[in-house]
Amino acid sequence: MAHGWAGYNLARSLDPKQYQPLVISPRSYFVFTPLLASTSVGTLEFRTALEPIRSRRSKASYIQGWADDVDFYNKTVTVEEGVLNPNQGLALTQSPQREKNEPEIHGEAVRKVQKGQLFDIKYDKLVIAVGCYTQTFGTPGVREYANFLKDVGDARKIRKRLLECFELAALPTTTPEVRRQILHFTVVGGGPTGIEFSAELHDFLREDMSRIFPDLAPLAKVRVLDVAPQVLSMFDKSLAKYAMNTFKREGISIKTSRTVESLTQGLPSGDNIKPGDWNKRPGLTLRVKGEEPIGCGMTVWSTGLMANPFIRRALNTVRKFPPSEVICKSTVSEAQSAQWSISTDAKSGSLMTNDRLRVILAGDLQQHTAEGLDSSLHAYMRDVFAIGDCASIQGTSYPATAQVANQKAVWLAKHLNRRDLHLTRFRWKDLGVMAYVGNWKAIFQPGGGGSAVNLSGRAAWFLWRSAYLFKSVSWRNRILIPVYW
What distance in Å separates the CA atoms of residue 454 and residue 196, rounded to the nearest whole number? Predict the structure, then answer.
């Protein structure tokens, strides 16, 4: 069950002479997510960030659908067809079954069975790599009106909205106050994605829009809001300060320790704006705790990840314990009398695995609880693995990044091919973090705690572009990307 870096790279790396990889995903392509910020402003074309799952170079089969349920005892996955999914290519912010009552969900499931939209797939080995959803923290209006940056459809919407804002501002009927607010762009989230998008957006406004709309470009503003006291918290303080100083010189506003309360459609009313003007000049109102409402033309939301609801909905409970499919120290009778569930991280909700990436089961013996004895049991699924953002290794705190997901996928494929998984354990190698900060400048912090030094400026920018080019999957994109750059 694949969705991104982990599943795609695992399927490509498995030996087709030993395995028949089958990818189940609602998305028929892999997205090179670090390039989405560039595609959203036109620096790169969308196809440079995409790789098709169906390819002559790949031996993996593919089914376009959503994993709906997993039966560990019978080793089957229930799949819901996803070819006609209306949210194809957009960031996932909620479960497809959210905000539906139980009768609606049951009736919908019955209709799907009748129409043949649900079907079962047998597996020998199952790799769960369903990724994460975009975290909105339940902030009112964010899911409905904000833009995200997780898929190519999100990048398309951002590019379209940028052009709409400038065309609206260019209309002679637009008042100066509305024009000023519609050209105000806010980015919520001070991580690498939010910072890189803000930098790309500023370059786009200065280099491209200044030539197309010379009178309007000076009015455009970019503002970054973050709840933390400092942006880019995963970087060294000196590099984060360099990024903030660069943004300040370029005119990008950074506001830290800010909590967003809501996002609503329509611009806030002011002295020069009639209360009904937002119907004619669509914009947004961003409300920040302790501040006046902010009028803006677009808000890009990039505040982190939340656990995929599929984990809680389909993997929360093991309905029938599969004794032949687990590695467990308890006796068979003791294990079968316990109530088993998938072990998840209490904070992030991600699946817990051991250092061989096998999914961990947690069992509870009710009779021992009554006697005051230790009632907890643990087991590992022999043929069920979890990798990527949806999984965490027990006793570690690896970041939920593409780098970690890719290393897990390559490591698991390598040792499945060698059939020596029992002889080794996964260890993440920190290769460092980098971020683009605009105007041909970037920051790079090496990993591993060695003697390598931090880089900033043009040297880091050259390394940033080289890394992204090198990590591109196909030679087609490795040729196209420098052409567009």
Answer: 18
